[in-house]
Amino acid sequence: MKHPVYLDYAATTPLDARVLASMQPYLTAVYGNPSSLHYFGQAARRAVMRAREQTAALIGASPAEVFFTSGGTESDNWALRSLAEGRRKKGCRHIVTSAVEHPAVRETCRDLAAHGYTLTELPVDAEGRITLSDVEAALQTDTALVSIMTANNEVGTLQPIAEIGALLEERGILFHTDAVQAAGHIPLDVEKLHVDALSLSAHKFCGPKGVGVLYVRHPAEMTPLLCGGAQERDLRAGTENVAGIAGCGCAAEIARAEMGEEDAKLRAFTEQLRDDLSRIEGLRFYGASEERLAGILNFGIRGAAQDALLIRLDLAGFAVSAGSACSAGAAHPSHVLRAMGCSSEEARTAIRVSLGRFTHEDDVKAFADAVCVIAAELN
């Protein structure tokens, strides 16, 4: 390979040059604090306001319902802890989530369970999907909150969020979705999804790291996760990351405009990759074949340990992963694949390939060829 090929877009994405250009003024000349009343502060404040409008448009929300955070993990924590606490005061202490959530949701729900809440983790099928009937069966008279991810970060499977949201809205139960992996890649409309809260992160759609977003249908029901100043309408203290927020807004606007074209390209690439890899003996794909994000493909090869395969691919010039970057280095196999019915042995062979905006067709073909050669050697 003449250059290393990045195929780990589900972990993070390259910063789009247009996004970098939108951020540069706020890293240099426009350096005021958005809370200041003078010219410099107000110029920064206008950038935050514009980014809020751009980000809201990506998910069909009102700007007044959009709050900026430090990332998806903070957004998830804030939503779950605040909404759960609000309902606890009304006697509701039961939380429902799924067995395949990102650690930001999974560990937060388990922490709440350790502090007086009860928790139900819903099972998934072999493709990683939950069923509406399982959600309905899990609901109790004291269910406070349900949190189900929009798209899985390891296998790309999409969940029936709109159907779940409609059910919960009818029952008067709050609904949060972690849309970090989905936002900017598939159309999202908070009204059609019937969600009360939605989390996203700019670095997953070619924006900057360190900027997250939390949509909240009823901001008046929220309490701050961080105490301090009056930023974000008294709900999220701390001087705003103006450059990062401006970049988030620009990235959201680009994603909204180019999502359809990008999805079609990535879907064609992954289908070709699937076809090319299918000729490898002992290879198995994980996740949904239809209801999935276009750019994610998770597979394992019988007898080929993921560490050995990852190292060989890295030496060959291809950057892929074993799953969630937030769980990298963990000694245990993927909780997502285990929940899908895979044995520990199977889960330890799986790798995730994720394509994105700057992926080229010839790189995908070269990757498939490299996997075929390496698999033959490892077996």
Automatic annotation (TrEMBL):
Molecular function, one GO term: metal ion binding
Necessary cofactors: pyridoxal 5'-phosphate
Domain Aminotransferase class V, residue spans: 5-367
EC number: 2.8.1.7
One Pfam family recorded for the sequence: Aminotran_5
Catalytic activity: (sulfur carrier)-H + L-cysteine = (sulfur carrier)-SH + L-alanine
PROSITE patterns named among the record's database cross-references: AA_TRANSFER_CLASS_5
Keywords: Iron, Iron-sulfur, Metal-binding, Pyridoxal phosphate, Transferase
Keyword Cell cycle set for record: no
Recorded family membership: Belongs to the class-V pyridoxal-phosphate-dependent aminotransferase family. NifS/IscS subfamily.
Protein name: cysteine desulfurase
Organism: Selenomonas flueggei ATCC 43531
Gene: iscS
